[in-house]
Each structure stands twice: as structure tokens, then as C-alpha cells.
Design goal:
The structure holds 2 protein chains of 2 kinds.
Chain A: H1 2-13, H2 24-56, H3 63-88, H4 96-113, H5 119-144, H6 148-167, H7 179-183, E1 188-189, E2 192-193, H8 194-212, H9 214-224, H10 226-231, H11 236-262, H12 273-283, H13 295-314, H14 322-355
Antiparallel strand pairs in A: 1-2
Helix pairs in contact in A: 1-2, 2-13, 3-8, 3-9, 3-11, 3-12, 3-13, 4-5, 4-6, 4-11, 5-6, 5-11, 8-9, 9-11, 12-13, 12-14
Chain B: H1 9-18, H2 20-38, H3 45-70, H4 78-94, H5 99-122, H6 128-147, H7 157-160, H8 176-194, H9 196-206, H10 208-213, H11 218-244, H12 255-265, H13 277-296, H14 305-337
Helix pairs in contact in B: 2-13, 3-8, 3-9, 3-11, 3-12, 3-13, 4-5, 4-6, 4-11, 5-6, 5-11, 8-9, 12-14
The chains are: A mainly alpha, B mainly alpha.
């Protein structure tokens, strides 16, 4: 996977008049095939899942239910976008659930403290809170050079603790929030939730960025081999720092959306969400030890997990089965990913020996 | 003192003082002093009983986690295995199984759950971080399937008494879970620090490949470690259930993070190959003491995570800071003395 991504980049940069034609098509083909395997795998699973569920219970495909699934996916997919950037760089951000909770409470309580405050200002506040948390994570991981798992596990506790100290036993209730704010997740265009369209666009932009921009490609290089990236002169610390800041900022925004969606926010909002998001990212084909995967895959992973929950509900299967099925799928996805990687590595090795 | 000549004087004397465990020991003393000064209740038998009771299961689960992390892996499913054991215990009891049969079943299921983790990690070569996030969901999911929204209570008083009474002969101040922790800590300590298997665990944590080539059965030992983790977490699940006299599907939810935090606080390297049971015991004491002191001072108990998190950050930053502070002369001498790891030159 990593090798194909690199060769793809070389191919692109070596688009000179004479260079690269000999190896070009073949490695391009291979890369194409792998990309198709990665994301099409999930699409196929998703399609089969939807088809089977709809065949048993046609109600699954009615407009209301589709809207529910999409709205459930939005916050999830957004968080998965930030987490993907972090995971690709061979790090992990476990603090997003706590950041979401803190941002959700603080931003939503602004409506009560400053009646008539414009909604965009509230979103900016959420973004600011998230950026601050991401900044702290990023500085510690990138400048302190300590493992991100430990740092973000610590900030998971600390940010949640701060949240609990601020919130205490209080909660923000829906009646204190303006109607226009609560309408945000409910607004639809042609039956599709506005929010889902916006998030899809954001994910698209994220995917384009990671695939084409130098700083995006750097993240893959850093995740594939941090030492090699450093020796190659890439600004490893800065890239990792940026990934954490983006992840924090996104978690802050997601907190405001969470508030709009649920209306009631206490100090437990978003507890345990980090592991669900990591699950979605891994199910979406992003390697947990960095270097490969895509934002679109992660978003599809989020969609798949939300679809499964909804399907179980529609099929009348007890929601108590949700988690076990999630866990099983997650392990399956990891094993599948491993099998693909192993096969690909041996294919590449074979190709190399044949050509040298 | 006799070896002063063949050692650099200062490092020779300072090295034991700079050990992580010594620092932790100081933290524990500090916690005890602060705890007893903020509340006269801190050192009462009743409070120590509560301290042992509320941290017993977490403490027990840190032991297998320590070995797993030293071996270079991680097990995030520990709290879910606790929950699954608790749910199984509840379901079987509500079906009127005899207790001994329940215990055997719970133990076997715990071993099997650990074996699944271990085999996925060693045979399929999947990263343990990802696998155990998966089984974290899976095992908690099984607990949820087993119990649904139900609560099982009314376990026989002979068992639930362990949440009320202490071990006889200790004045009733030492809980059964504390006793189990002490015994297990001794066993794990001996295995880790005084047996070939323990040395193998350190070796594979340093480099699984080198360990493999030197004839250590890496896969077998790692699988065994995950199985031990499953068994010990099941035991913790049983203790948890009896202590609260309640089996619900979310028993012990989220405890895995506490367990990992304590183990890292103990100076166990997240990359494997480094750590000690003595450190873990001290870290457990520090963690439990802080939680308890905060409880006595009416600090919002749920926010005590701030302290845990701060300690965790300190545990990763202090060694770095110490390295910077120690500066060049000692550091360079220590480096000259230490066996060099040669890095392959880059092409």
C-alpha cells in the first residue's frame, strides 16, 4: 500500500515527456486496483447489508429512516476525518470524546448566557475550544516527542475532568437553545439532510487535500516510516502537530453539532466516543499503525457502523446486539486489511525481483 | 562503597536514587502525608478498607497488563472481559446454577476470551491495539447480549460479604480483593523478575525478532499472557459483582483506561521491554491514595481524572526532563559505558 502510494506520487511528479512511461502503466494499474479493493470493499459490504436489510424490511429504505442514518453519521464521519489524519501519521488521538463533550457544553451554554448570540459565533467558540485542546495535544506529542497514545489518554482524562468541574451536575436543556440552532440537523434539501451534504463536501475536500497536497502526502510518509521521513527532510514534527490541531478543531465543531442534534448536554456527552471513532476509521481501511488509508474510507466506515445500528433497529433485533456485531466487524476489518497488505507486499516483492 | 573505583562516583551513587520506583515511593509518601493532613479519616481502618475495596479490581487487572505491555503488546479489552464475566455470573446465577459450576464456567470463558485476543495477535499477526479495541466492543457486546437491560442481584450473602467484611485476622481492615492483589503481585513479581519466562518477556519487548531468533517461543508466551489476562479479569469481574451485589452489562465500563494509566505511571514503557512489578504496586498505591484523598476532601470525585491524567503526563515527561537536566557530562559517560546499539548506516 505504502509503496504503491509512493510510486503513484513519483509517477505524477515524473510526468516529464520521456520519463516514467516504462514503469508507469503497470504500477498505476496496481495502485488503481488496490484503491478499488480498499474502498470498494466497504462499499460492497455496505450495499449487501442495505440490500439484505431492505429485502427483509422495506421500511429500512424509506426517507425518514435514511435521514436518521445520515444524521447519525454526520458527527461520526466528521470526527473520523480528523482522526484519520492523526492515525495516518502513526499517532492516535484518544481525547476527541472529551473535547467534544467540553465544546458541546460550553458552546451550547453560550445561548443561555448571551441571549440572541449569533449561531456562527457559537460554532466559532466550539472551534476555538477544540483548537486549544488540539494545540495542547500537538505540542506535547510533536515537541515533547512522547507517545501520542499516552498523551491523549492523559488529556482524555484531564479534559473530561475539567468538563466535569465546569458542568457539575448541571445540564443544558433543549428549551434554552434557539429553534434555529436545533433545526440545523433537521433541515433537508431534496430529502437529504443539509448537514450530511456539507459533511460529505468537507470529507471530499479532506480526501483531495490528503491525496494531492504536499503536506497531505507528507502525513503518509511520516506514518509509513517516521525516521525515514525525518532523514528525507520532511518537517515531521510540524505535520504531526498540524494533524492534532485539525483533529482537535474538528472535535470542537463536532461538539457544537452534537449539541444541536441532542439538545440536552451534561458532563457525560461524548464519553467513550473516541473508541467508536477509531473503530470507524479502522473499519474504513486506515491502518492503525499509519501510512495508509483514506478519509473517504473512514467516512464510509462511519456510515457502515451507523447503518448497522439502524438496520438492527429496523429489523427488530435488540439494540443490545449492536456492540457485539460492531466488535466482530472491527476484528474482521483488521484481519482483512492485514490479508490485503500481506498479499500486496508479496506481489510487490515478486514484481521487483522480476524486474531487477 | 567498595566499587567506587570502578564506577563514576556520582552516577554510581545517584543511579538508585534516580530510579523511577524511588520517585514513585516519594509520591506515595507525599500522598499519605497530604491525605492524612487534609482529613483525619485518611488513616482510619474504615477508610483503608474502602480504599482497598474501591480499587481492588483495578489493581488486580494491572498485573497481567504489566506483563503484556512489557512484552510489547497491549490489552484494551480488560474491562470488557470483567463485564463479560460479571454478566455471565449473573445470568448463570439467575438460572440457578450451583456456584462452583459458575466459577469454572466463568474462568473457562475468561481463558477463551484471552486466547482469542492472543491468537489474533500472534497467529494472524494483527496489531494488539486494534484487536483489543475490537474485542473491547465484542466482549462488552456479549455482556450486553447476555443481560440486556436486566440487573441480577441477590447473590448469596456468603459471597457478597466480601464487600462488607474484611479478611479475618487483620482487624477487618483488609479486603479480600487487597489480599488477592498482594498474593498475585508476589506471584507475578517472581515470574517476571526471577524466572526464564520473565526474562523472555523483557527480551521480546525489546525486540520480538531477536527474541524469536534466540529461541524464545514468542507467540506461545504472548498467547499465554493474553489468556492469563482473561483469567485474571474474570476473577476481577466476579469480585466486582459480589462487592456490589449487582450484575449489569456495564459493570466496569471504561476501567481499561485506568488500568493502562496506572501501568504507565508505574514506569512501564509503552514500547515494551521495561518495567517492574514493584513500580506497579507503588503506582497502584499512589493512584488509590489520590482518589481516596480527593474523595475525603469532597472534591468532585468524577473529576479526579484530572489528577490521573496529570500524573500520566508527568510519567512520560519527567524521564525526558531528567535526561535533559542531567546534561552532557554524565549523560555522555553513561552512554560510553552502556552497550552501544549500532544503527545501520543509511544508504
Amino acid at each position: 500500500m505504502r509503496a504503491t502510494m509512493l510510486s503513484r506520487r513519483q509517477q505524477r511528479s515524473a510526468k516529464g515527456p520521456a520519463g516514467g512511461t516504462a514503469a508507469g502503466p503497470r504500477s498505476g494499474e496496481l495502485a488503481e486496483r488496490v484503491f478499488r479493493i480498499r474502498e470498494s470493499g466497504i462499499v460492497v459490504v455496505l450495499a449487501v447489508f442495505i440490500a439484505v436489510t431492505a429485502a427483509i424490511q422495506p421500511r429500512f429504505l424509506n426517507a425518514t429512516n435514511i435521514q436518521f442514518v445520515l444524521i447519525d453519521t454526520t458527527v461520526f464521519a466528521l470526527l473520523a476525518l480528523g482522526e484519520t489524519m492523526v492515525v495516518i501519521s502513526r499517532n492516535v488521538d484518544l481525547s476527541i470524546g472529551s473535547v467534544l463533550g467540553l465544546s458541546a457544553y460550553l458552546s451550547a451554554s453560550l445561548f443561555g448566557q448571551h441571549p440572541g448570540i449569533p449561531i456562527p459565533v457559537v460554532f466559532l467558540a466550539g472551534l476555538g475550544i477544540g483548537l486549544a485542546c488540539g494545540l495542547a495535544n500537538g505540542i506535547m506529542v510533536a515537541a515533547g516527542r512522547v507517545p501520542s497514545l499516552v498523551v491523549t489518554l492523559a488529556t482524555l482524562y484531564i479534559i473530561r475532568g475539567i468538563d466535569i468541574l465546569i458542568v457539575g451536575g448541571r445540564e443544558v436543556v433543549a428549551s434554552s437553545l434557539p429553534g434555529a440552532f436545533l433545526q440545523i440537523p433537521k433541515a433537508t434539501v431534496f430529502g437529504l439532510p443539509d448537514l450530511a451534504i456539507v459533511i460529505a463536501a468537507v470529507v471530499g475536500v479532506g480526501a483531495y487535500y490528503l491525496r494531492t497536497f504536499r503536506s497531505g502526502r507528507d502525513l503518509y510518509a511520516v506514518g509509513s516510516n517516521p525516521e525515514a521521513a525525518r532523514l528525507a527532510g520532511l518537517p515531521v514534527g510540524r505535520r504531526v502537530f498540524t494533524a492534532f490541531v485539525v483533529s482537535g478543531g474538528i472535535a470542537g465543531l463536532a461538539g457544537v453539532l452534537w449539541a444541536a442534534q441532542y439538545g440536552t448536554i451534561d458532563s457525560t456527552a461524548g464519553t467513550g466516543y473516541e473508541l467508536q471513532v477509531v473503530s470507524a476509521v479502522v473499519v474504513g481501511g486506515v491502518a492503525i499503525f499509519g501510512g495508509s488509508g483514506s478519509v473517504i474510507g473512514a467516512a464510509l466506515g462511519a456510515l457502515l457502523l451507523a447503518t448497522i445500528s439502524s438496520a438492527l433497529y429496523v429489523l427488530g433485533i435488540s439494540p443490545f446486539w449492536d456492540q457485539a456485531i460492531w466488535g466482530f466487524l472491527l476484528i474482521l476489518a483488521i484481519a482483512l486489511d492485514q490479508a490485503i497488505t500481506v498479499r500486496l507486499t508479496s506481489a510487490l516483492r515478486l514484481r521487483r525481483t522480476r524486474h531487477e | 562503597m567498595s566499587n567506587r573505583t570502578d564506577r563514576p562516583p556520582l552516577t554510581g551513587m545517584l543511579r538508585p536514587a534516580l530510579r523511577w520506583e524511588t520517585g514513585l515511593g516519594l509520591v506515595v509518601v507525599l500522598v499519605a502525608v497530604v491525605g492524612s493532613s487534609v482529613s483525619s479519616q485518611f488513616f482510619t481502618g474504615n477508610n483503608l478498607f474502602n480504599l482497598g475495596l474501591s480499587n481492588g479490581e483495578i489493581a488486580i487487572m494491572t498485573l497481567p497488563m504489566t506483563l503484556i505491555i512489557i512484552s510489547g503488546e497491549i490489552d484494551l479489552s480488560v474491562a470488557s472481559m470483567l463485564g463479560m464475566a460479571s454478566a455471565l455470573l449473573g445470568v448463570l446465577w439467575s438460572h440457578h446454577w450451583p456456584m462452583p459450576a459458575i466459577f469454572v464456567t466463568v474462568a473457562v470463558v475468561g481463558l477463551a476470551a484471552g486466547a482469542v485476543n492472543g491468537l489474533l495477535v500472534t497467529r494472524l499477526r494483527l496489531p494488539s491495539l486494534a484487536v483489543t479495541i475490537g474485542t473491547l466492543a465484542l466482549y462488552r457486546g456479549i455482556a450486553t447480549i447476555l443481560l440486556g437491560p436486566n440487573t441480577v442481584a441477590n447473590f448469596p450473602a456468603a459471597y457478597t460479604n466480601l464487600g462488607v467484611n474484611g479478611v479475618p485476622g487483620t482487624g477487618g481492615d483488609v479486603t479480600y480483593s487487597t489480599l488477592i492483589f498482594v498474593v498475585l503481585a508476589a506471584v507475578f513479581g517472581v515470574v517476571l523478575h526471577a524466572t526464564p519466562a520473565g526474562r523472555s518477556i523483557f527480551a521480546m519487548g525489546d525486540s520480538a525478532e531477536a527474541a524469536q531468533f534466540s529461541g524464545i517461543r514468542v507467540k506461545r508466551i504472548k498467547t499465554a499472557l493474553f489468556m492469563v489476562s482473561g483469567l485474571v479479569c474474570s476473577l476481577a469481574g466476579v469480585l466486582y459483582t459480589f462487592r456490589l451485589d449487582t450484575a449489569v452489562q456495564n459493570n466496569g465500563l471504561g476501567l481499561e483506561l485506568d488500568v493502562v494509566a496506572i501501568v504507565l505511571l508505574a514506569g512501564v514503557s509503552i514500547f515494551g521491554g521495561k518495567g517492574s512489578i514493584a513500580g506497579v504496586v507503588l503506582a497502584v498505591l499512589a493512584f488509590a491514595g489520590i482518589q481516596n484523598a480527593l474523595l475525603l476532601t469532597n472534591f468532585n470525585q468524577e473529576a479526579s481524572g484530572i489528577v490521573t491524567g496529570a500524573l500520566l503526563l508527568a510519567s512520560v515527561f519527567l524521564p525526558n526532563a531528567a535526561r535533559w537536566l542531567r546534561g552532557s557530562p554524565w549523560a555522555s559517560r553513561a552512554r560510553a559505558l552502556a552497550p552501544r546499539q549500532t544503527r545501520a548506516p543509511s544508504p
